[in-house]
TrEMBL record:
<keyword id="KW-0665">Pyrimidine biosynthesis</keyword>
<dbReference type="GO" id="GO:0006207">
    <property type="term" value="P:'de novo' pyrimidine nucleobase biosynthetic process"/>
</dbReference>
<feature type="binding site">
    <location>
        <position position="198"/>
    </location>
    <ligand>
        <name>substrate</name>
    </ligand>
</feature>
<dbReference type="InterPro" id="IPR011060">
    <property type="entry name" value="RibuloseP-bd_barrel"/>
</dbReference>
<feature type="binding site">
    <location>
        <position position="9"/>
    </location>
    <ligand>
        <name>substrate</name>
    </ligand>
</feature>
<dbReference type="GO" id="GO:0044205">
    <property type="term" value="P:'de novo' UMP biosynthetic process"/>
</dbReference>
<dbReference type="GO" id="GO:0004590">
    <property type="term" value="F:orotidine-5'-phosphate decarboxylase activity"/>
</dbReference>
<dbReference type="GO" id="GO:0005829">
    <property type="term" value="C:cytosol"/>
</dbReference>
<feature type="active site" description="For OMPdecase activity">
    <location>
        <position position="64"/>
    </location>
</feature>
<dbReference type="Pfam" id="PF00215">
    <property type="entry name" value="OMPdecase"/>
</dbReference>
<dbReference type="InterPro" id="IPR013785">
    <property type="entry name" value="Aldolase_TIM"/>
</dbReference>
<keyword id="KW-0456">Lyase</keyword>
<dbReference type="InterPro" id="IPR018089">
    <property type="entry name" value="OMPdecase_AS"/>
</dbReference>
<dbReference type="InterPro" id="IPR001754">
    <property type="entry name" value="OMPdeCOase_dom"/>
</dbReference>
<feature type="active site" description="For OMPdecase activity">
    <location>
        <position position="59"/>
    </location>
</feature>
<feature type="active site" description="For OMPdecase activity">
    <location>
        <position position="61"/>
    </location>
</feature>
<comment type="similarity">
    <text>Belongs to the OMP decarboxylase family.</text>
</comment>
Amino acid sequence: MPKLMLALDVLDESEAIKISEETSEYVDCIKIGYPLVLATDLGIIKRIKEKTNKEVICDFKVADIPATNEKIARLTLNYADGIICQGFVGLDSVKAIINVAEEYKQVGNSKKVIMVTEMSHEGAKSFMQPIANEIAKMAGKLNVDGIVAPSTRPTRLKELKEIANNAFVISPGVGAQGGDLQEVLKVLDENDYVIVGRAIYLNENPKESAKKYKELL
Ligand code: 3DU
C-alpha cells in the first residue's frame, strides 16, 4: 500500500493551513512547491509542519549548476524534510544537493533528496522520456532517496522504478491529470507515494477527498 502525498499548490496561506489540517488524518506527507512558497515565503514550510506534524517535501525541481544548487538546497533544507531536484542537469548538480543533505544527516537531521526522472505531462515525451532511463540509472549510482516518475504512464512508472531499484518512488498524475490509480497500484509498494493535488484541494470537501484516496490506496 503506497502512501498519500498531498500536493498543496494553493496560493493562500490560510487556505493552505486549513486544507493541510483538515486532511492530515489521511495524508502521509505534504509537498509544497513554487506556487505556495512564492505566494507566501519559505517559512510557510515550518508553519505547516508545526500545524500538521507531517513531513514536508519541497518541490523546487532544482535544475542549476552545482554551486547554485547547493545554495538552494541549503536554504530549503533549513526548513523542509526533503527537496526535489531535476536529474537531467547531470551528476555533479545532483551531487551538490546530496552533499548538503549529508551535512544535515551528520548532525542527526535526516533530509531526503528526490530526483525527477520523467515528468507526467504530455510534453515530457519530447525531451525527457528519451533520457529518463539514464537518469533513473544515475539515481541508483548516486543513491538518492527517491525518484519522481509518472502515474500517467504506468508502464514507464514500472520501468523507472525497476531501474532505480533502491529509491522509493513519488508519483504524480492521478486525479486531475487522469492517471489510472488501479494500474499505478500494481506498480507501487509501501515505500512509495501517490501524489494527489487538485483532486483534493479543489474538491468542495478536501477532507472527504483525501479520505477517499487514502481508502483507495
Ligand atoms: O496534478 P495534481 O494537481 O494532482 O498535482 C501534481 C503535483 O505534482 C503538482 O504539484 C505538480 O507540480 C507535481 N508534478 C507533476 O505533476 C509532474 C511531475 O512530473 C512532477 C511533479
